[in-house]
């Protein structure tokens, strides 16, 4: 028998709030966290906007000496994990540490350390490169640092699937608990790639919107959409087996009931043009939960604001849901926080959990001129209070990676 899995803790570092309540309230208020890039001079760059995390001080979450041995993406991961563990009330002195694991991924790791040390290599030679370059840079250090900081000795993994990273990490953590490898998993994603090479690379790919208007920059499903805006941050949740949560009297936010993962096997950057891969991931998640498409009230779309993503995801939803596609409520959190790449799935899963808890679907901010080909209900205008019993979160990553999580109201 597969064990039931519940969500008991939430933690978030985002461009519109450095804790879950601030983030969620900002979403409800349609607060857009996009503005001019402050980390470097963008004079020669076409893309000049990003969704930066504001007022983040790692010393609020960890020892200053430990923070110095972490790059920004790892600091974000540790901060969000600390929030989630405290929210869940996990007391490691009462846990078997080998049954508490980590699945916190980063799509890229630290571009900052690569840029910094490569400049040293060119200017001063190989002998001046930081001895810690590799452990600062590699993407698994988000999971590694979370494990070290909190004494979590169970399974510790970093699934890297570009923009689907956070969703796959939560999905694989879910499976680990279902099949008894862990009682508790700290799961999600972290990213901090608003750097010269990161912005230049995505711009060269023509993936980023180059407008200078923050309110028309990340506009999923709008016919004027022209690329995504890079964001940064971390979204981490605590998952537990239901038995473990009940035994310790934990507050249960929701039940994670389904996970679907597929590959388009089509193109390195474009989703399959008929949406079939993403559709199948949604179908698998719904089947995994033992539910029907008609049971889903709300979809947090991948919704990046690129022409291909929004059109093909719309086709995918139609393929997976049939007639119900026109009745389900859809939105894109990226309309306010940009695209957090490997962290997107973690933050968007938290959005689904809060939507269920609060009975509210936030608006897709900036959606004004809805594309005729994107003809579903993307929550244009204002957010909508409504009862949500079941929600799904979609993530699609470069390389053709598709992942869907299904979360529902917890009932005994």
TrEMBL record:
Highest taxon of the lineage: Bacteria
Protein name as annotated: 3-oxoacyl-[acyl-carrier-protein] synthase 2
GO BP annotations, alphabetical order: fatty acid biosynthetic process
GO MF, one annotated term: 3-oxoacyl-[acyl-carrier-protein] synthase activity
Function comment: Involved in the type II fatty acid elongation cycle. Catalyzes the elongation of a wide range of acyl-ACP by the addition of two carbons from malonyl-ACP to an acyl acceptor. Can efficiently catalyze the conversion of palmitoleoyl-ACP (cis-hexadec-9-enoyl-ACP) to cis-vaccenoyl-ACP (cis-octadec-11-enoyl-ACP), an essential step in the thermal regulation of fatty acid composition.
CC per GO annotation: cytosol
InterPro entries membership: 3-oxoacyl-ACP_synth-2 (IPR017568), Beta-ketoacyl_synthase (IPR000794), Ketoacyl_synth_AS (IPR018201), Ketoacyl_synth_C (IPR014031), Ketoacyl_synth_N (IPR014030), PKS_Beta-ketoAc_synthase_dom (IPR020841), Thiolase-like (IPR016039)
Pathway: Lipid metabolism; fatty acid biosynthesis
Location of the active site: 163
Transmembrane segments: none
Pfam families in the cross-refs: ketoacyl-synt (PF00109), Ketoacyl-synt_C (PF02801)
Keyword terms: Acyltransferase, Fatty acid biosynthesis, Fatty acid metabolism, Lipid biosynthesis, Lipid metabolism, Transferase
Protein's gene: fabF
CDD domains xref list: KAS_I_II
Family: Belongs to the thiolase-like superfamily. Beta-ketoacyl-ACP synthases family.
EC class name: transferase
Residue span(s) of domain Ketosynthase family 3 (KS3): 2-409
Enzyme Commission designation: 2.3.1.179
Catalytic activity line of the entry: (9Z)-hexadecenoyl-[ACP] + malonyl-[ACP] + H(+) = 3-oxo-(11Z)-octadecenoyl-[ACP] + holo-[ACP] + CO2; a fatty acyl-[ACP] + malonyl-[ACP] + H(+) = a 3-oxoacyl-[ACP] + holo-[ACP] + CO2
